[in-house]
Amino acid sequence: MNMSKNAPTTDQKTDTRLTHAGRDPASFHGFVNPPVVHASTVLFPDTASMAPGASRYVYGRRGTPTTEALEDAVSELEGAAGTKLATSGLNAITLACLSCLKAGDHFLVVDTAYGPTRHLCETLLARLRVETEYYDPTLNGDIRRLFRDTTAAVFTEAPGSLSFEMQDIPAVAAAAREIGAMVLMDNTWATPVYFRPLDHGVDLSIQAGTKYIVGHSDVMIGTVAASERAWPQLQDTHGAMGLHVGPDDVYLALRGLRTLSVRLERHASNALAVADWLAERPQVAAIRYPARADDPGHALWKRDFSGASGLFAFDFVPSVTKAQALAFLDALKLFGLGYSWGGFESLAIPVRLQGIRTATAPDNTRQSVRLHIGLEDPRDIIADLAQALETALG
């Protein structure tokens, strides 16, 4: 996209980039936002224009001004060579994996990865003869001892899904670079506002844009931002898979992107207030939130990340039964009981840590709850949690 005089420059801050990246009003008669282009066929003025590389747009699946605007904006935020869109976060993970793996490859995946990522590895990738090995997130640079001649890629996620362990991403990336392996990261929790994976040695930065980019629980979308060395193969794989996201969903993601920073600030401040309050409750044994100073991953989070999101978990004390934990969830009034997160509303789900890891064995037998803290007033959120604790546990 040919950017206008309002385009962000390399010395501008994140909030300015969020406001201006991917926009070129001069190309669209001065309108602030790009048009929502519904298109399949593109007409050419002559046969010469149909030659490969002769025209900017050739077919709707290959890109439109709408998809290009979001790709450009995400690339600007990520510091990427390029970005491709996917139909969901899991679809983005699949796209990223297929862009750097082939039959016979060895794939190292952090043991705390998102559950559907593990399912992808154990089904589709296994059928393609990619061997997945899960590793302890605390290995960091010691991941070298797991490398083989066939190790092609390392998958990271920080903090870990459900259990929220931190990884030393720069250390893992540096080790992987020694053998030329690609490094992938699911960065949905922090977004590039609070952590830019490519700046720390990652090759493919993945986001479930469904969560914080969109921010309103009404669109499924994913993004994969690539380093220079990963970009050609990502482009090729994306095209070969025929991936395309509908223009209305892209438009809503662009709209959500503009307020990403201010929403994250509120999510984070609310979450910290709620987490601090929960930590003082006699029914609560532990908080799983790297932004808290007593979290085991706090030092890594503070070193590498510039902020936190609204997602964390907590463990009940051992005496709380499964029935009581579920009664607590059922007693919540402001919190919805639902999967996903990142929208304006608060959500809660039960978590069972035992049995969801293979390379590590959490000894935690306590009942746990994952909370996404929304944009409600934190005093009302805390009041709702208080009444639910009283109702379920007395």
From TrEMBL:
GO MF annotations in UniProt: cysteine-S-conjugate beta-lyase activity; pyridoxal phosphate binding
Modified residues (N6-(pyridoxal phosphate)lysine): K211
SUPFAM superfamilies per UniProt: PLP-dependent transferases (SSF53383)
Cofactor dependence: pyridoxal 5'-phosphate
Renumbered residue ranges of the record's region Disordered: 1-25
Keywords: Lyase, Pyridoxal phosphate
Basic and acidic residues composition bias: residue spans: 12-23
Transmembrane segments: none
Reaction it catalyzes: an S-substituted L-cysteine + H2O = a thiol + pyruvate + NH4(+); L,L-cystathionine + H2O = L-homocysteine + pyruvate + NH4(+)
GO BP of this protein: L-cysteine catabolic process to pyruvate; transsulfuration
Domain of life: Bacteria
Compositional bias (Polar residues): 1-11
InterPro entries, sorted: Cys/Met-Metab_PyrdxlP-dep_enz, Cys_b_lyase_bac, Cys_met_metab_PP, PyrdxlP-dep_Trfase, PyrdxlP-dep_Trfase_major, PyrdxlP-dep_Trfase_small
Record pathway: Amino-acid biosynthesis; L-methionine biosynthesis via de novo pathway; L-homocysteine from L-cystathionine: step 1/1
PANTHER family: CYSTATHIONINE BETA-LYASE-RELATED
Record NCBIfam families: cysta_beta_ly_B (TIGR01324)
Family listed: Belongs to the trans-sulfuration enzymes family.
Designated name of the protein: Cystathionine beta-lyase protein
Native source organism of the sequence: Polymorphum gilvum (strain LMG 25793 / CGMCC 1.9160 / SL003B-26A1)
Encoding gene (name): metC
